[in-house]
Specification:
Layout: E1 12-16, H1 24-38, E2 42-46, H2 53-56, H3 69-80, E3 86-89, E4 92-94, H4 98-116, E5 120-128, H5 133-145, E6 149-151, H6 154-160, E7 164-165, E8 196-200, H7 210-222, E9 226-230, H8 237-247, E10 250-252, H9 260-271, E11 274-279, H10 282-290, E12 294-296, H11 304-311, H12 325-331, H13 334-368
Parallel strand pairs: 1-2, 1-3, 3-5, 4-5, 5-6, 6-7, 8-9, 8-11, 9-10, 11-12
C-alpha cells in the first residue's frame, strides 16, 4: 500500500466501511459510498477482513483495504498531522453498540487532532437507530465535526439532532438510468419478460400467516406471474426454504461458494425479471426498484424503517394502504401495479438526482474548498 504522507497532491480518504458479512445490501450501498469518496482522493478503508466475501462487494482494490483496525488507525494518525487527509465515517444502518462506541472513542483523539490541523470529516448516508443516551454522545460529537453531514432518513436527523437528508446510497447502482457513481452490474436484457414476483423476508421475525401467503399467490395469479423467493442475507436461508415450500415456488438460495458481488449479480438478474419485490428488507426493495421492479413493503412484519426511507424520494406507497398488507395485496390490480412501475422509475430517477447532488457537494467541500 502506498504511503499517503508521501503523496501530498493526492489526499488520502480514511473510510470506515465495515458491514455485515452475510448481507449483500451492506456491501452494495457502501460500494457506492466508496466510489463517491474515491472522487476526493485515494481511499484507505477499514472493512473488517479484507479477504472476505463482504469486502469483495465494495469494489475496492486489495491495496485500498487495511488488514487490521489498529494499523488503519495508525496510518490515519500519521496523516492527521498533515491536515490534508479526509476521515469518512460509515454509511448504512448505524447501531450505537458498546463495541462501536469503543472503536470510535479509541479514534476520537486522532479525529480531534485531524480536525484541529484542518482535516475534513464527512459522514454521509447513515441511518441511525435510537440507542442509549450515553452511547450516543461520541457520535453526536462526530456529527458536530462533520461537514458534509447527511442521513438517509428524517428520523435519523431527529435522533442525532442535526444534519441534512439524502437517499440511501443503494439507489446509485443498478439499471433503470444513469448511475451516480461507478459502473452497473450487468443487468438482464432490456427485453426480458417480467414474469415473476419476488418475496424476500427476514428470517428473524415470525413467519407470515397463511392468509398473507395465499394473498401473494392470488396476486401472482391475477398478474400472470410466478412467485420466487430470494435470499440476499445468508441468515435468512432457513426461513426462505420454509416459505418456498409453502408457496411451492423456486428459491434463489445463498451460494456460499461465491462472493458478495457474484451473489448480488444473481439477485439483480432475478429482480430484473420481476414485476414486483415484496419484502421487509430495505435493500431488497431498493435493489428491486433500481432493477425496474415495483417495491412493496406490504409484509406483516415490515417496520416503518422501510417506508420512511422511500418517503424521502416521494415513494409513499411502500406502507400498505387500508386495513393491512393482506388486504392491500388482494386489492392490487394489474393496472395499479403498472402505475406503480411508472412511479417507481420516477422515484429512482429522483433519488439518483439527489445522490448526484450529494456526491458533487462532497467533492466541492473536500476538494474544491480545500
Amino acid at each position: 500500500m502506498s504511503d499517503p504522507v508521501n503523496h501530498p497532491n493526492e489526499p488520502a480518504v480514511f473510510a470506515w466501511l465495515s458491514g455485515q458479512a452475510d448481507n449483500i445490501g451492506d456491501s452494495m450501498l457502501r460500494r457506492a459510498y466508496a466510489q463517491a469518496l474515491a472522487a476526493c482522493g485515494r481511499v484507505e478503508a477499514w472493512v473488517g477482513n479484507p479477504d472476505s466475501g463482504y469486502a469483495s462487494g465494495l469494489g475496492l482494490s486489495r491495496d485500498s483495504m487495511n488488514s487490521g483496525y489498529f494499523r488503519w488507525v495508525g496510518r490515519f494518525a500519521r496523516s492527521a498531522w498533515s491536515g490534508s487527509a479526509v476521515f469518512a465515517f460509515n454509511a448504512g444502518e448505524f447501531v450505537p453498540t458498546k463495541k462501536y462506541v469503543a472503536g470510535l472513542i479509541f479514534m476520537l483523539p486522532v479525529i480531534a487532532l485531524h480536525r484541529l490541523r484542518g482535516g475534513r470529516i464527512v459522514w454521509m448516508g447513515a441511518g441511525v437507530r435510537r440507542g442509549h443516551r450515553l452511547l450516543m454522545h461520541p457520535f453526536r460529537l462526530l456529527a458536530r465535526w462533520s461537514d458534509p453531514l447527511r442521513f438517509r432518513d428524517v428520523e435519523s436527523t431527529r435522533i442525532v439532532g442535526m444534519g441534512k437528508t439524502m437517499p440511501d446510497w443503494g439507489f446509485a447502482l443498478g439499471t433503470g438510468g444513469a448511475l451516480v457513481v461507478g459502473a452497473p452490474i450487468e443487468p438482464a436484457g432490456a427485453n426480458t419478460p417480467r414474469d415473476y414476483i419476488a418475496v424476500v423476508l427476514r428470517g428473524d421475525r415470525r413467519p407470515p400467516s397463511d392468509s398473507w401467503v395465499a394473498a401473494v399467490e392470488r396476486l401472482a395469479a391475477r398478474t400472470n406471474t410466478k412467485v420466487v423467493v430470494v435470499v440476499q442475507v445468508e441468515r435468512d436461508r432457513a426461513a426462505a426454504e420454509a416459505l418456498g415450500a409453502r408457496l411451492d415456488c423456486r428459491i434463489i438460495r445463498w451460494n456460499p461458494s461465491v462472493d458478495h458481488r457474484q451473489q448480488e449479480a444473481r439477485v439483480r438478474a432475478e429482480y430484473g425479471r420481476c414485476r414486483a419485490v415484496i419484502s421487509d428488507r430495505l435493500h431488497a426493495l431498493i435493489m428491486g426498484a433500481t432493477e425496474g421492479a415495483v417495491p412493496l413493503g406490504w409484509c406483516e412484519t415490515a417496520t416503518d424503517k422501510v417506508s420512511r426511507h422511500f418517503e424521502l424520494i416521494d415513494a409513499d406507497w411502500l406502507r400498505p394502504p387500508g386495513d393491512g398488507p393482506t388486504e392491500a395485496l388482494d386489492a392490487l390490480t394489474p393496472d395499479a401495479l403498472e402505475t406503480m412501475r411508472i412511479e417507481t422509475l420516477s422515484a429512482v430517477a429522483r433519488a439518483r438526482a439527489e445522490l448526484r447532488e450529494a456526491a458533487d457537494s462532497l467533492v466541492r467541500r473536500v476538494v474544491v474548498d480545500a
